[in-house]
Structures are given as structure tokens and as C-alpha cells.
Specification:
Largest sheet: 6 strands, mixed
CATH superfamily of the largest domain: 2-enoyl-CoA Hydratase, Chain A, domain 1
Structural class: alpha/beta
Helix content: 40-55%
Number of strands: 10
CATH topology of the largest domain: 2-enoyl-CoA Hydratase, Chain A, domain 1
Radius of gyration: 19 Å
Order of helices and strands: EEHEEHEEHEEHHEHEHHHHH
Distance between the termini: 25 Å
CATH class of the largest domain: Alpha Beta
Length: 259
């Protein structure tokens, strides 16, 4: 599929989605949201694609959030059912997604990053939910994912003051997984993806879904519920379920099929 506002690259089992509106600091308007929706649908449906990386074009901005100039023109924005950037309401996604934050992650851009499983930040990255300053609210998950990541009081401070937080502060608070220096954030994301791909993709998906299903349950209930996860059932009936122990016994690297 040809895209106008994003670019998509496949590198083996890794899909790299780049938000490509540098003239607007990679802020998103409805056509861009729908392109992200289509690209992530394709990634999710392809059994040969195991990990996704989301980043922004250029070295200044990951995503500056909602394209307010587009919205101010009077056009009523219609987002896809999967939410901002085609991700923030994609609650059934079991494949891992890495955010490679290369600059400003503001508003909806920060919400996209928070919706990812791993958040890597360049040293120059900046995070904020500034919606209140323009009479809006972070309704694409920021009001709920941020307090779950760093605690309600610190999250309320960021939300009420529209505070801008550096990459190092994000690491200290716990929502950033790693701060990246000279290596470059996209190269680091590829490194993380390569490490993830050493494991069975079905095992990773089962672990993610089981953890998601258990977060709001007591541990005893979560440990029972994990067996009912579809991704766990898929893992236990797959070739990978046998390949792992067989490769271990034969003292060789496993050859995962993801099926």
C-alpha cells in the first residue's frame, strides 16, 4: 500500500512505521491516523511480522500530537476505531510495539508512545501532555496510561501544569525504558527488536496478553485467567511449543515459526 503521511519498512520480522509529516513536527491529522490504522492492521495480521517500531521522521520530533491547524480549519476529525495514530485504542494487540522517540512527544504523540510496550528516548526527547493549555484533554489514553506508569500524584502534576519532562526524567519516573545517546534511537529500537525476536513470537504474545489480562486482577485470579488467553492457547498448540524444548535438548538455537 502506498502512503502519503507515513512510511513503512519491513526488515525481516520487524515492521518500522515512520510518522512522516516533518513540516508539521509529525503532528497527525485524520488522513495520517487512517494510514497508521491500515499499516498496523497489516502488521497485526501478518504472522511473519513479529515486532513493530514506531518513530518520527527527522531528528526534531517524534510526534507533536494533534494537527491543530487542520482542526482549526473547521474540519471535524474522524479517527479510526483503533484511536490516535491507529494505536491508542488497539487494546487487543498482542504483538510487541517499540516507540523510538526521537524528539518532541507532545499530547497525542506522548499518548502513542505510552501505548507502546517499550519506550526508547533520544537524549533530546521531550514529553508533555499540554492539552489543558488549549482547552482540551488527553483523551487518547494519556489520562489513564500515565498514572498507571508513574503513579497518580506525579501524573496529575504533569497533566495539571502541562510540564515538559526530559528523557532522563522519564527514565527516572519509569515510563522510559532506555535513554539513547550516540547509538541513535532507531538503531537502539532495532537492537531491542532483535533481542525480542530471539524468543518465540508466540511466547512473547502469550506473555503480553496474559499480563494485560491480569493487571486489574488479584494474583491468584490472574494466574487462573492466563490459561484462558487466546494467545496462550495458540502458543500451546503451536510448533514453537515443541521447538523450544527440542532445540534446548539438541543444544542448538531454536528456529521459530510463529505458528
Amino acid at each position: 500500500m502506498a502512503y502519503d503521511h507515513i512510511s513503512v519498512e519491513r526488515d525481516g520480522p520487524v515492521t518500522i512505521l515512520t510518522l512522516n509529516r516533518p513540516q508539521a513536527r509529525n503532528a497527525l491529522h485524520p488522513p495520517a491516523h487512517w494510514e497508521c490504522h491500515a499499516a498496523l492492521n497489516a502488521f497485526e495480521a501478518d504472522p511473519d511480522q513479529w515486532v513493530a517500531i514506531i518513530t518520527g521522521a527527522g531528528d526534531q520530533s517524534f510526534c507533536a500530537g494533534n494537527d491543530l491547524k487542520f482542526q482549526a480549519s473547521g474540519v471535524v476529525p474522524v479517527l479510526p476505531p483503533t484511536g490516535f495514530g491507529g494505536l491508542t485504542s488497539r487494546f487487543t494487540m498482542v504483538k510487541p510495539v517499540i516507540a523510538a522517540v526521537n524528539g518532541y512527544a507532545l499530547g497525542g504523540g506522548f499518548e502513542i508512545a505510552l501505548a507502546c510496550d517499550v519506550l526508547l528516548a533520544a537524549e533530546t526527547a521531550t514529553f508533555s501532555l499540554p492539552e489543558a493549555r488549549i482547552g482540551m484533554a488527553a483523551l487518547a489514553g494519556g489520562l489513564h496510561r500515565l498514572p498507571r506508569a508513574i503513579g497518580p500524584r506525579r501524573a496529575m502534576q504533569m497533566i495539571m501544569t502541562c510540564e515538559r519532562v526530559s528523557a532522563q526524567q522519564g527514565l527516572d519516573l519509569g515510563f522510559v525504558s532506555e535513554v539513547i545517546g550516540e547509538e541513535g534511537v532507531l538503531a537502539a529500537a532495532r537492537r531491542w527488536a532483535a533481542e525480542i525476536c530471539k524468543a518465540s513470537p508466540l511466547a512473547i504474545q502469550a506473555a503480553k496478553q496474559a499480563m494485560q489480562h491480569g493487571l486489574d486482577r488479584p494474583i491468584a485470579d490472574a494466574m487462573v485467567a492466563q490459561w484462558g488467553c487466546q494467545a496462550m492457547r495458540d502458543l500451546r498448540t503451536s510448533e514453537d511449543w515443541l521447538e523450544g524444548p527440542r532445540a534446548f535438548a539438541e543444544k542448538r538455537a531454536p528456529v521459530w515459526k510463529g505458528r
